[in-house]
């Protein structure tokens, strides 16, 4: 695979990390404002996304496709933002 592909993967993975941070900051703000139920729902949605999407995808890329761990992590994280395109808030 070429350098442009890995560059795009790294850029998408960085965006996914920022999305994850932004969601967790909003959960913290909601919790501090007293909206604990909505904060718990957002945390549960994130945990489901991690358990059902990210961990199996990481295992597939790392164990089955035999990609290096860093490349597998970047590929998995870059797919994180596509999870939220399926969810409509």
**What structural class should be given to the helix and strand makeup?**
mainly alpha
Gyration radius, to the nearest Å?
15 Å
The tally of helices reads: 3
What overall geometry do the principal axes of the alpha carbons give? elongated
Oligomer class = single chain
Tell me the span between the first and last alpha carbons: 35 Å
Q: Give the amount of beta strand, in percent.
A: under 5%
Structurally, the number of domains stands at: 1
Which percent bin holds the helix content? over 70%
Run of helices and strands: HHH
Main sheet specs: none
Number of strands: 0
Q: Mean pLDDT, nearest integer?
A: 84
Low-confidence stretches: none
Question: What are its keywords?
Answer:
mainly alpha, 3 helices, single chain, 89 residues
Provide an overview of this structure.
This protein has 89 residues and is an all-alpha fold. It has one domain. Helix content is 88%, strand content 0%. It has helices at 3-33, 36-64, 69-86. The model has no long low-confidence stretch (mean pLDDT 84).
In short:
With 89 residues, the chain is mostly helical.
Compile the SSE list and pairings.
Elements: H1 3-33, H2 36-64, H3 69-86
């Amino acid at each position: 695979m070429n350098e442009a592909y890995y560059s795009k993967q790294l850029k998408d993975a960085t965006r996914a990390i920022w999305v994850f941070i932004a969601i967790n900051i909003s959960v913290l703000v909601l919790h501090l404002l007293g909206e604990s139920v909505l904060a718990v729902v957002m945390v549960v949605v994130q945990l489901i996304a991690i358990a059902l999407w990210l961990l199996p995808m990481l295992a597939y890329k790392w164990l089955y496709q035999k990609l290096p761990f860093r490349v597998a992590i970047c590929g998995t994280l870059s797919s994180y933002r596509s999870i939220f395109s399926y969810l409509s808030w």
